[in-house]
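Data availability (excerpt). The following record was deposited with the supplementary files.
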Amino acid sequence: MSGIWGWFGGGAAQKRKDTPKNVILDLRTQLEMLQKRETHLMRQIEEQEQIARKNVNTNKTAAKAALRRKKIHEHNLEQTLNHIGTIEQQMNAIESANINQETFLAMQRAGKAMETIHGKLTPTKVDETMDKLQEYNRLNEEIAEAMGTINVGPQLDDTELEDELEQLQQQELEDKMLETGSVPVDRLPTVANGEIKGKAKAQSVQEDDEEAELRRLQAEMAM
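Predicted structure:
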């Protein structure tokens, strides 16, 4: 309820007895009192009906008196229910009216805020600003492209670099030949080199099999 009943008139306005908040509080207090009275009257009606049932055959005078009191309680209950309905209706109406007013005030504040934010801003000014930004972006790209074409240092020919790289490779090959006194293994023909490696691998596998067989025989003889 505090959010709904927040008012902007200051402390003096909140102390006024006719503010919606205070009216609602008064109506709510009255409603609680009427609801308690409703509960009490219903209990009295039930008690009088029980008395009438108890004396219907033995004491008709007492039974009639109980029924008479029951009718009075029922009449009072009807009036109380009407009062409860009226108060609830008034509370709903005041709350709805206050919500409408708060909504309207909020919309007014939103309108003023939008006016402050926009100020002198217009679609034409926005278009002009966007055009300037696009022009600055194009200028920045042209500057970056122009700076990227600048070559720093001496101009080098790719052909000269390739020749120098080939000379270094040849020099490294000659140094290996001088160290080994023969052509390096990695310079042998691919097929021959592969055959040598294959034969060496096959021989190694065969020797391993023979060693395993020999160890198996030795173990059997020891048993």
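Summary of structural features: Residues 1-5, 187-193 have pLDDT under 50 and may be disordered.
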